[in-house]
Amino acid sequence: MTTLSSPHSAPHSTEIAVVGAGIVGLAHALAAARRGHRVTVFERSERAVGASIRNFGMVWPIGQPPGPLRDRAMLSRQIWMDMATKGDFFYDPVGSLHLAYHPDELAVMEEFVALAQPTGYAVQMLTAEEAAAKSQAAVTTGLLGALWSETEVIVDAREAIATLPQVLQATFNVEFRFGATVTAIDSPQFTVNGETWTADHIFVCSGADFETLYPDLYQNSGITKSKLQMMRTSPQPQGYRIGPALCGGLTLTHYAAFADCPSLPVLKQRIQAELSFAVDWHIHVMMSQNGLGELILGDSHEYALTFDPFDRTDINQFVLNYLRGFAQVPCLDIAATWHGIYAKLPGKTEFVAHPAPGVTLVNGLSGAGMTLSFGLAEEVMTTVLHR
């Protein structure tokens, strides 16, 4: 696919320009191309290496509250599976299990199911025996029950983000310009590596780099960043699979979907008293498995505009210790550790702005980019392009 990085040919113009080839940019490129537009994606790196490849690979509708956000997540899920089929990359609709070992965790899960089932959401409570039948990795000692959801899908983020440009190019004629840095925008013109381009509309999906384009607008928005630490094991031996993605009780305190559960404050109070380190570093522990058999583990959340570049071993050790309380697998040998940084706008689920005619900024999905980007892009394109 030499055109992905081939030299520009005159004239330098396109109908739709997308800045950034992370998941948000790819989703908006797809949404525009599906509507018949000629789309060019500009990515400053030789390949996308940001938060879009530094995550669990979880498409996670269960984390979104009922209503528009969950609908958006379910649409994203559908598009993910369609794109994975077109691109022949790994996806696994395995669902998820939240495992309860304390009465307050069980209470939150039961309340969640009672609230969610009337909305048509496919969730149910399982006994310890039923949870074990779903996942041989679930620790059953002391297990009081589990929340089962069938909607979650796992992809390999590294593989998916690398493959999607090829799918978009082959199927929708999207053009990609890697190693192409957009440094200025004066719509309909913009500057790429010192050259002038024009576009009917420019979508800026720059992720954690919101200091380069429209920095004043971002600064006034209150947007910040989140640094998270994660790990990956070696492939599990003999084709061992964990089945559903697994979560412990800490995860119930992280996602907005559980916010309306009456017992949540009680759970948070106990966690504050017993696991203050997790509260201080906004840790909740999850585990997914990719097509290579590797387990993806994490994660923590640190909020700031500038971070210490060095990762903390005590955070990774806490995650591993907590994980062992609800998951047992043949191999927890860590093959890689890393951190990711994503944009977050406190109190909001996304940041969409129109700083000038013909320009739309889309950012701040707050760590839910894999889950929400495809659905959000459909909404944005319908509004902006009116078709």
Structure described in brief:
The chain has 387 residues and is an alpha+beta fold.
Relevant terms:
8-stranded mixed sheet; D-Amino Acid Oxidase, Chain A, domain 2; 387 residues; 9-stranded mixed sheet; FAD/NAD(P)-binding domain; disordered N terminus; alpha+beta
| Strand-residue proportion | 25-35%
Alpha carbon gap, first and last residue: 30 Å
CATH architecture of the largest domain: 2-Layer Sandwich
Mean pLDDT: 95
Please provide the ordered H/E string of secondary-structure elements: EHEEHEEHEHEEHEEEEHEEHHEEEHEEEH
Uncertain regions spanning at least 5 consecutive residues:
1-10
Structural class: alpha+beta
Tally of discrete structural domains? 2
Query: CATH H-level name of the largest domain... which superfamily?
Result: D-Amino Acid Oxidase, subunit A, domain 2
Number of strands: 20
Largest sheet: 9 strands, mixed
Q: Helical residue percent? A: 25-40%
Principal-axes geometry comes out as globular
- How many H/I helices? 10
Rg from Cα: 21 Å
> Which CATH C-level class of the largest domain is it?
Alpha Beta
